[in-house]
Design brief:
Layout lengths: L4 H19 L3 H14 L3 H13 L3 H14 L4 H13 L3 H14 L4 H13 L3 H14 L4 H13 L3 H14 L4 H13 L3 H14 L4 H14 L3 H14 L3 H12 L6 H18 L7 H10 L3 H4 L4 H10 L4 H4 L8 H24 L14 E7 L6 H12 L5 E7 L7 H9 L2 E4 L5 H9 L5 E4 L19 E4 L14 E4 L13 E4 L24 H4 L3 E4 L8 H13 L4 E5 L6 H13 L7 E4 L14 E3 L8 H8 L4 E4 L8 H8 L6 E2 L2 H13 L1 H17 L5 H18 L1
Parallel strand pairs: 1-2, 1-4, 2-3, 4-5, 5-6, 6-7, 8-9, 8-11, 9-10, 11-12, 12-13
Helix pairs in contact: 1-2, 1-3, 2-3, 3-4, 3-5, 4-5, 5-6, 5-7, 6-7, 7-8, 7-9, 8-9, 9-10, 10-11, 11-12, 12-13, 13-14, 13-15, 14-15, 15-16, 15-17, 19-21, 26-30
Length: 732
């Protein structure tokens, strides 16, 4: 039915009013008027305005639907195509966003928003050089646009062109002296250039004029969190920022800082983080940009209901495109099917391709060479070369490597003062470099100048590690080992160090396997020393019931895993379950754990929590059997348990991260404790719980068995590792 002249006129008046309210950021009233206008006159202008308003409200799916109506009615409407690009950017669909922006630019080459969204999409895909090129016309069309200047500064900063970025931000500050955002961007540049005093002075100047400027307070929170590693100060400034103005991103950063706070307030901080995250999730909704920080606290507190609200596939795509590979590790515990495993592998591959594209766009000067004669130069890079499990597994190398055949160069990315473990490593190697500041490209250039023959990365995507450096191929042969239980995905990584048990299905790894003959790790006596007293007998003898338990990180838990553990308890009358975790003092964690067990018929009185950090080993004396996590199995925790005479029951899968305990148990001849499915897992645990004689024997025998195993024979392990590295270099 054709609308009347009066209804069309009325609709136009409503749209005019809606546009005014939209420009004034009164989005709810603007949306109400626009929807009324559509009822009176269903036209493309109204649909385009509705999509613009919904984009501003970050309701991107609804915005996309409205804008699709607009382009159906007028396919040549450049603003609608540009707005579709914005919706798709918000949804993490970057390729489609770029296509939509290019359609708008084909209709109107000078459409500013289309240029901006196309450049942003390329940026989010990691194609920064192309993003800078696409943005160039915008600098001519609107040289004083704050949006254009902000994106130009950001792109130059990300590409490592810090001095150029600083020049552009200086120009922006001159044009917009009251723009706090530009001033703080300038402070960020100064921090990157190690001009810390100037950066803090710039922030202080803002706060003197505006003591409650939420952006300046947020900047200080970031400064203490990332540069000073002072969570207490970071928490204080993030809270002040949030009090000044509630902002979802600030809330997410506060949650992240609270979650990483240690010391006597740890449990209270985690509970505070969970309360804030739950409020944001329930009342506002969590964006892709903030999902990583909120998901982390929900995983830590086993808030599975709120985790389930996320589209993890879309979230993974967003993290890949935004160079947040560490977020993928949280997805290892979510795989259920072979399709899930393949998808996870493809997500790592995609991230690696984007990282490689960024490196290729900014090449370094290098002259890598292989030493066919003389000593082989081995590089080791990690952010965990101190009192950390990674170091404990790697220390035998520094103790026993053959200095007549090998030189070892170490690259540490942590910013802490060297502890006694790091000082020991420094004293034993040919070269030790602390690489804390600088872009990935700058650090890659530094490493490449050392002419490493073969590089071992021990950190993967763990905190502070810099895996992107490997995309510049800082060594002719590059190997991933120890720190990340999955293929990283970087095309420049040649090998993944494995052993006969750890080696995954060939189609579930991207690198070639570099196989140690017996085990992929060796056990440093510093870690497995005799300082932790070993009980003479398992507790089942005095309790008359079996105590199962875990010390694994809650990031590995899932509803399915807790249901599996509950099955074990239900199969073993009067048995108990012991959680040895610092989260044991966290109210949200305890309530969620107990709720899950009670749902499966296990009374809360059968669950015990020991809230300890760093002093957990002796608590294994109160456990008879460790129940491993699945699909993401234990690594260090499995060896901890075995060293304390507590056998581990594990479930074996196809991917590397599902086989770590399988490797450890077979190394000490306990392959019969490895299950192929859930039923077998329950059966093995129940049979072992009834075999008190075997539990007594294992309590007594496991430490000597570990010492005599291939993992305990550290000198032979180092010879095998060294020979493997040398052979790769000589035979390349």
């Amino acid at each position: 039915m054709t609308p009347s002249i009066e209804s069309v006129a009325s609709a136009q008046l409503m749209l005019d009013s809606a546009e005014q309210k939209y420009r004034a950021a009164n989005y709810e009233d603007a949306l109400r008027l626009t929807e009324s206008a559509i009822k009176s006159d269903n036209n493309y202008r109204a649909w385009n305005l509705k999509g613009s308003i919904l984009n501003a409200l970050e309701r991107y799916s609804d915005a996309f639907a409205a804008l699709t109506q607009a382009v159906r009615q007028n396919p040549a409407l450049a603003p609608a195509h540009a707005n579709i690009a914005k919706s798709l950017l918000g949804l993490g669909r970057f390729d489609l966003a770029i296509e939509a922006a290019r359609r708008a630019m084909a209709i109107d080459p000078r459409h500013l928003n289309a240029i901006l969204y196309c450049s942003e999409g390329l940026d989010l895909k990691g194609e920064i050089t192309d993003a800078i090129t696409v943005l160039t016309p915008a600098l001519e069309i609107a040289p004083t646009s704050p949006e254009v200047l902000e994106l130009q500064v950001s792109l130059l900063f990300k590409s490592g062109r810090i001095e150029e970025a600083l020049a552009w931000v200086d120009r922006a500050v001159e044009l917009f002296p009251d723009n706090t955002g530009f001033k703080l961007n300038r402070a960020k540049m100064l921090l990157r250039l190690k001009r810390e005093a100037e950066a803090l002075a710039a922030c202080d100047a803002i706060l003197k004029q505006e003591p409650k400027n939420y952006l300046a307070l947020w900047f200080l929170g970031d400064f203490y969190f990332h540069y000073k590693l002072d969570r207490i100060e970071a928490n204080k400034h993030y809270r002040a920022s949030l009090d000044a103005r509630f902002d979802l991103r600030t809330a997410a950063h506060l949650c992240s800082s609270l979650t990483n706070t240690r010391g006597p307030t740890e449990a209270a901080c985690i509970d505070e983080a969970h309360t804030l995250a739950a409020k944001c999730s329930d009342t506002i909704g969590i964006t892709l940009q903030t999902a990583q920080m909120f998901l982390s606290i929900f995983h830590k507190t086993c808030d599975f209901q709120r985790v389930a609200k996320f589209d993890l596939r879309l979230y993974a795509d967003y993290c890949v495109a935004n160079n947040i590979p560490g977020a993928l590790q949280a997805l290892l515990s979510t795989v259920k099917t072979r399709e899930d495993r393949r998808r996870l592998l493809s997500q790592h591959r995609r991230w690696g391709e984007l990282s490689q594209a960024r490196a290729d766009a900014m090449p370094i000067a290098r002259a890598p060479r292989l030493r066919k004669q003389g000593k082989v130069r081995i590089g080791i890079m990690s952010s965990d070369l101190g009192h950390h499990p990674v170091s404990y597994f790697a220390l035998p190398i520094f103790k026993h490597y053959d200095r007549d055949r090998v030189e070892i160069y170490v690259y540490a990315f942590d910013s802490m003062e060297p502890d006694n473990v790091q000082r020991f490593i420094m004293s034993r190697v040919t070269m030790f470099r602390k690489l804390v500041s600088g872009t990935d490209r700058e650090l890659a250039q530094t490493i490449a100048q050392d002419e490493i023959d073969i590089m071992f990365d021990l950190g993967g995507t763990t905190y502070l590690n810099r895996p992107n450096i490997l995309s510049w191929r800082v060594a002719p042969i590059q190997v991933s080992w120890l720190g990340y239980p999955h293929s990283l995905g970087l095309p420049a990584i040649d090998y993944l160090l494995v052993d006969p048990y750890l080696r995954p299905s060939p189609d579930l790894m991207l690198e070639r396997p570099l196989e140690m003959p017996h085990t992929w790790v060796s056990l440093e006596p510093l870690f497995f020393g005799n300082s932790d007293a070993l009980a003479e007998a398992p507790p089942i003898l005095s309790n008359n019931y079996a105590t199962f338990g875990t010390a694994n990180n809650p990031q590995k838990y899932s509803p399915e895993l807790l249901a599996l553990w509950a099955r074990v308890l239900n199969e073993n009358q009067n048995s108990r379950f012991l959680f040895i975790r610092p989260e044991g003092a966290v109210t949200a964690f305890r309530e969620n754990i107990l709720g899950n067990f009670m749902k499966h018929g296990v009374a809360k009185e059968r669950i015990e929590f020991r809230a300890v950090r760093g002093t957990h080993m002796s608590h294994y004396n109160d456990m008879d059997i460790s129940l491993d996590c699945a699909p993401l199995t234990g690594g260090t925790t499995t060896w901890d348990s075995l060293w304390m005479g507590v056998p581990v029951v594990t479930r074996v899968g196809e991917s590397l991260f599902e086989r770590m305990s399988y490797s450890s148990l077979n190394t000490v001849s306990l392959g019969d404790l490895c299950a192929g499915d859930a039923d077998e897992y329950v059966a093995i645990a129940s049979t072992l719980a009834k075999d008190v004689k075997r539990l007594k024997a294992l309590k007594r025998e496991l430490r000597p068995r570990i010492r005599k195993s291939p993992a305990g024979n550290t000198q032979q392990w180092v010879r095998d590792w060294e020979n493997l590295a040398i052979d790769q270099v000589r035979n390349k």
